[in-house]
Write a structure and sequence with these properties.
- Helix content is 32%, strand content 9%.
- By secondary structure, it is an alpha+beta fold.
- It has one domain (11-175): Glycoprotein, Type 4 Pilin (2-Layer Sandwich), CATH 3.30.700.
Length: 177
């Protein structure tokens, strides 16, 4: 039943509108995805700066680097955040023989290994934006070798050589020593 003077859309009009929407989506989706990728890199950069600042305040308060294991021996070779372990962590000079969570040093001093500990220095050490751990080559503290706070980046593989002075691949990191 048609009411006089009422019109609907023709099939061609509907197809033209659908084509315009598809073209706009084809242009906008890559732009949005690029912005999301850039925001993840920016967040990772901000996180490594925050961890660096926390470690520096920790060092100022305790006069030590965060390298104590559970028995209060300076034996740690790797500090990690929460999340999945990035691939390549045992490669490129990253020694993972004795690792501990950053939380054990920056969020609590349960073992009592550090004098003048005035933390918590960070409220939480979360995973990087891709779900992987932030890692620190703790065995290099005080050795004169570079110390990195590193995210493995979008590919989840740690490409940077621990003794290097520059990051490699898509890693996001900050050299603190």
């Amino acid at each position: 039943m048609m009411i006089k003077g009422e019109k609907g859309f023709t099939l061609i009009e509907v197809i033209v509108v659908a084509a315009i929407i598809a073209i706009l989506a084809g242009v906008l989706v890559p732009m949005i995805m690029k912005e999301i990728d850039e925001s993840r890199i920016t967040r990772a950069s901000a996180d490594v700066r925050s961890i660096s600042n926390a470690i520096m305040v920790f060092r100022k308060d305790t006069a030590q680097w965060p390298v104590m294991d559970a028995s209060c021996g300076a034996n740690l070779t790797l500090l990690t955040g929460s999340g999945n372990a990035p691939t390549g962590i045992g490669d490129n000079g990253w020694d993972d023989t004795s690792s501990a969570m950053l939380d054990n040093h920056l969020m609590s001093n349960d073992d009592g290994c550090y004098n003048n500990w005035n933390g918590a220095y960070l409220p939480v050490v979360s995973a990087d934006p891709w779900g992987n751990q932030y890692v620190i080559n703790a065995n290099s503290f005080g050795s004169g070798s570079p110390v990195w706070i590193m995210s493995a980046g979008p590919n989840g593989t740690l490409d940077t050589v621990a003794a290097s002075t520059i990051t490699a691949g898509d890693d996001v990191g900050l050299r603190i020593q």
